[in-house]
Write a structure and sequence with these properties.
- Belongs to the peptidase A1 family.
- GO terms for molecular function: aspartic-type endopeptidase activity.
- This protein has about 375 residues and is mainly β.
- It folds into two domains: about 210 residues, Beta Barrel (Cathepsin D, subunit A, domain 1), CATH 2.40.70; about 150 residues, Cathepsin D, subunit A, domain 1.
- It has seven helices and 29 strands.
- β20 and β21 form a beta hairpin.
- The longest helix has 10 residues.
- The protein is globular.
- The two termini are about 25 Å apart.
Length: about 375
């Protein structure tokens, strides 16, 4: 299978890194912009990045949102013989789900669908699954089957199969989601894929790491059971989790040109591969965007594309270390809508450090020590 590779040192098989390449593709927003449908879409399905972190959905229903800027997907397989699916490797949720052949929603018609009837290893569960989006929901049922991730075959993995899906999913490239947060977040008590990897002794270390390439379609990768030194430079900063539900840490402050512009006195942030932007409270995000010279237009913060090289760094102070995001990293250019910043409005207090942050910092998610490791990505 061309999407699977295993990087091994010569010394021993135990040094293998189990890796899944991620493809950086056109986002739903880019596809909609090309069709001239973006403004209509954004009004009909407003972006609510905090939906999946709503405490009302922390146990029970899994919450998600319609992030039209998500660009990174990897391929897994389910069943015997294997059926392939493109999934978002999402550190902000805990369930695995894909569309099923029993789904007739428009969102399922242009995605790969799992057929339990053709898998010899499938076992029915009988339970139901509901995933609450910011603007709709996915409903489905649960089953067990072999899930293969990066060449690792996880036996009897519980997963969801959709029967209905929210309309906005038809514009997304991914078929489904593979959640990598903590098990107590999981809907229906389903054991997450990585927990089963650990329980079955399939990984050398109880951690995984994520590298998101900034410029090219290729090169991004999720590594299970280890850290790939080819993708970072310098020391790893280890940050203890402040809440072992999501990958949540404490940010001490955010500065621009040495001036504190947000998180004065500290705030909570979730390192989330399933969110494209850096998201924070509206007043804080407004402060940051004002300091970097952006103006608000139709829900986006826009800048002059000619000014990117002169724009100031935005620095996150975390656990005594500085994590700096330059203008070239936080500004995104669209051929249809000009240049907009990667800082978006969110909830009342919680922050999300999404792909804009992770592209700059190789991120290690350590379940053994309940820490996040950050190192400068290369």
């Amino acid at each position: 299978m061309k999407w699977v590779f295993v990087a091994c040192a010569m010394v021993a098989l135990s040094e293998c890194l189990i890796q899944v390449p991620l493809e950086k593709t056109k986002t739903a927003r880019e596809n909609l912009e090309e069709q001239g449908l973006w403004e209509q879409y954004r009004l009909k399905y407003p972006y609510n990045p905090m939906a999946k972190f709503d405490e009302r959905f922390a146990v029970g229903d899994e919450a998600m949102t319609n992030d039209a800027d998500l660009a990174y997907y990897g391929v897994i397989s389910i069943g015997s013989p294997p059926q392939s699916f493109k999934v978002v490797f999402d550190t902000g949720s805990s369930n695995l789900w894909v569309p099923s052949v029993y789904c007739s929603s428009p969102a399922c018609n242009n995605h790969d669908k799992f057929n339990p009837g053709t898998s010899s290893s499938y076992k029915h569960n009988g339970g139901s699954l509901k995933i609450q989006y910011g603007t709709g929901s996915m409903t489905g049922f649960l089953g067990y089957d072999t899930v293969t991730v990066g060449g690792l075959a996880v036996q009897n993995q519980i997963f969801g199969m959709s029967e209905t899906e929210a309309p906005f999913m038809q514009y997304m490239r991914a078929d489904g989601i593979l959640g990598l947060a903590y098990p107590r977040l999981s809907a229906s008590g389903a054991t997450p894929v990585f927990d089963n990897m650990m329980n079955e002794g399939l990984v050398n270390q109880d951690l995984f790491s994520v590298y998101l390439s900034s410029d090219t379609q290729q090169g991004s990768v999720v590594t299970f059971g280890g850290v790939d030194s080819n993708h970072y430079d310098g020391p790893i900063s280890w940050i203890p989790l402040s809440n072992e539900l999501y990958w949540q840490i404490t940010v001490d402050s955010v500065t621009v040109n040495g001036q504190v512009v947000a998180c004065n006195g500290g705030c909570q942030a979730i390192v989330d591969t399933g969110t494209s932007l850096i998201v924070g409270p509206q007043s804080s995000i407004s402060n940051i965007n004002t300091m970097i010279g952006a103006s608000s237009q139709n829900g986006d913060y826009m800048v002059n594309c000619n000014n990117i090289a002169q724009m100031p760094d935005v620095t996150f102070h975390i656990h005594g270390q500085e994590f700096t995001i330059p203008g070239s990293a936080y500004v995104r250019q669209s051929q249809y809508y000009g240049c907009r910043t990667g800082f978006g409005n969110g909830g009342d207090s919680l922050w999300i450090l999404g792909d804009v942050f992770i592209r700059q910092y190789y991120s290690i998610f350590n379940r053994a020590q309940n820490m996040v490791g950050l190192a400068k990505a290369i």
